[in-house]
Write a structure and sequence with these properties.
Radius of gyration: 19 Å
CATH superfamily of the largest domain: Hypothetical protein, domain 2
CATH topology of the largest domain: Endonuclease III, domain 1
Distance between the termini: 40 Å
Number of strands: 0
Strand content: under 5%
CATH class of the largest domain: Mainly Alpha
Length: about 210
C-alpha cells in the first residue's frame, strides 16, 4: 500500500514545531507507520475484542480455539452468528466478549462496519463514530486501527497509557497528564499527530539529555 505521508517530512515538521519532541526524533528510528493490506475490518476488530484485558499468550490461545470452530479457521460474521453460544463459550470467550463479537457481526452485516475500501475513503472522525457503535469497541481501538492498519498521519491517541507516560517523561511532568492536556499540546503537532504519538512511544527506549 502507498504511504499516506513522507516520514522524513513529518519528522522535520514536528522537530521544528516542538523542541522537546525534536530530542526524541534525533535519537529514535524513523517512524514506520504505513497502511496495511486489510482482509476486513471485521477481522481486525474481532481480534481486538478477543485480546482485550488479556495477555498475548492467553488471548492467542483463545483466538486459536475460536478460529478452529470455523472452516479453514476463517471467522465470518454470518457464521459467527450461527455458531452456538455454548461452543464459543467453551472456546474461552467470556459472556461480555461473546456479546461484543456478535454485535460486531451484526453491525458488519448491516454496513455499520465498512469495507476496507470504504474505510479508506472515510475521515478519521467518521470512522471513530461508526466503529465505536460496536459494543466493546472504544476510541483507543479505533485509533490503533487508524494508525497501524490505515496509516493515518494525524490521529491523537491521547488516552493511550504509553503516550501518556512518554509525554510525562519528555515534558518533565510531576503527575500523569490528562488526555485533555495532551490534546492541547498536540495542536502544534498537526497534521502529524500520529507520528508524534509514535515518537512518544519511543521516549523510554532512548537516553534524553538532562
Amino acid at each position: 500500500m502507498k504511504p499516506l505521508f513522507d516520514p522524513a517530512v513529518a519528522a522535520r515538521s514536528l522537530a521544528a514545531a516542538d523542541e522537546r519532541l525534536a530530542l526524541v526524533i534525533a535519537r529514535a528510528a524513523m517512524c514506520d507507520l504505513q497502511p496495511r493490506r486489510l482482509g476486513s475490518l471485521f477481522n481486525v476488530l474481532f481480534r481486538a475484542i478477543v485480546f482485550q484485558q488479556l495477555n498475548g499468550k492467553a488471548a492467542s490461545s483463545i483466538l486459536g480455539r475460536v478460529e478452529a470452530l470455523f472452516p479453514g479457521g476463517h471467522v465470518e460474521p454470518a457464521a459467527l452468528l450461527a455458531m452456538s453460544e455454548e461452543a464459543l463459550r467453551a472456546a474461552g470467550l467470556s459472556r461480555n466478549k461473546l456479546a461484543s463479537v456478535r454485535d460486531l457481526a451484526v453491525r458488519t452485516l448491516d454496513g455499520t462496519v465498512p469495507s476496507p475500501a470504504a474505510a479508506r475513503r472515510m475521515g478519521d472522525d467518521e470512522l471513530v463514530a461508526r466503529l465505536t457503535e460496536v459494543r466493546g469497541i472504544g476510541p483507543w481501538t479505533v485509533h490503533m486501527l487508524l494508525m497501524f492498519d490505515l496509516g493515518r498521519p494525524d490521529v491523537m491517541p491521547s488516552g493511550d497509557y504509553g503516550v501518556r507516560m512518554g509525554f510525562k517523561k519528555l515534558y518533565r511532568k510531576r503527575s500523569e497528564p490528562s488526555p485533555a492536556q495532551i490534546e492541547r499540546h498536540a495542536a502544534r503537532w498537526q497534521p502529524y499527530r500520529s507520528v508524534a504519538a509514535w515518537y512518544l512511544w519511543r521516549v523510554h527506549e532512548i537516553d534524553l539529555p538532562s
